[in-house]
């Protein structure tokens, strides 16, 4: 596990964020929510995520 000083989000925050993003996708079908989940899983930078689109 990485030191907390190196982490931007803690594991529990990421889980909570995933729940919110999944609910957002289910409620309105906006694929941006899925892209953000993918971004966290893959550890992409913003430009790399945009290039995937």
Give the SSE order as H and E letters.
HHH
N-to-C CA distance: 31 Å
Shape verdict: flat
**pLDDT < 50 runs, ≥5 residues:** none
- Helix percent reads 55-70%
Tally of contiguous helical segments: 3
Q: Which structural class fits the helix and strand makeup?
A: mainly alpha
Mean model confidence by pLDDT: 83
The portion of residues forming beta strands comes to: under 5%
Number of strands: 0
Compute the CA-based radius of gyration: 12 Å
The major pleated sheet works out as:
none
List the helices and strands and how they pair.
Blueprint: H1 11-28, H2 32-42, H3 46-52
Describe the structure.
The structure is a single chain. This protein has 53 residues and is an all-alpha fold. Helix content is 68%, strand content 0%. The protein has three helices and no strands. α1 runs antiparallel to α2.
Give the structure's gist in a few sentences.
With 53 residues, this protein is mainly alpha-helical. The chain has three helices and no strands.
């Amino acid at each position: 596990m990485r030191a907390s000083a190196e982490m931007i989000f803690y594991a529990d925050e990421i889980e909570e964020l995933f729940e919110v993003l999944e609910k957002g996708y289910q409620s309105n079908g906006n694929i941006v929510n899925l892209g953000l989940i993918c971004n966290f899983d893959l550890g992409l930078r913003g430009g790399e995520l945009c290039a995937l689109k």
